[in-house]
Every structure is written in C-alpha cells, then in structure tokens.
What does this fold into?
Amino acid sequence: MSYGTEWRKSGACATADPDLFYPIGTGNAAARQIAEACRICAACHVRRECLDYAMENREAHGIWGGTTPEERAHARRKETDAQRYGARTAQRTAPETAA
Ligand code: SF4
It folds into this structure.
C-alpha cells in the first residue's frame, strides 16, 4: 500500500516547533524533545497514517507516528524475522504436490 502525504496537513505537529521532531544528540535535551514530540503525536488524529508512511518509506530520522528511529528499526527487524520464520514454517508444512 502506498501512502500519500495529504494527511500531514492534519498532523498535530503542523503548528509545533519542527526541531522537536528532529532532535540533535542523545543527551537530556534531546530526550526532552523526543518526549515532547511523542506527547504531541499521542493526541494526533493522523498518527496511524504517519507511522505507516514512515515505515513504508524507511524514514531513518525524526519522530514519526510517535516513534523514534530506533523503535521503527526494531519494528522492521521484528517484521522481517516474522516473515522469515513464517516462510520457513510454511516450507516445512507445505503439502507435497503430485508431479
Ligand atoms: S503522528 Fe506526530 S509526527 Fe506524525 S503527523 Fe501526527 S504529530 Fe506529526
């Protein structure tokens, strides 16, 4: 599925400080920015669309849909692992086809 970007106009971040969503560094200041961005995302009506867009486009930076880049990378790894495991399980349980 492909996600357009029309939903962005309705985002709760439309009037927020953009720097909150792209914190620099990893210290306490960045942690406060991330927490504030995620608080804004929690009340956003297009959060699902935002997160789906970020996942589909492999957004490597910034807060999208209330998630950090690390959280999205973790979710992608879990998804990939589940797909691999599912494929292996399906191969093992697939019935033999008659030739
Ligand atoms: S979920 Fe967060 S980053 Fe996405 S549009 Fe809403 S407020 Fe902005």
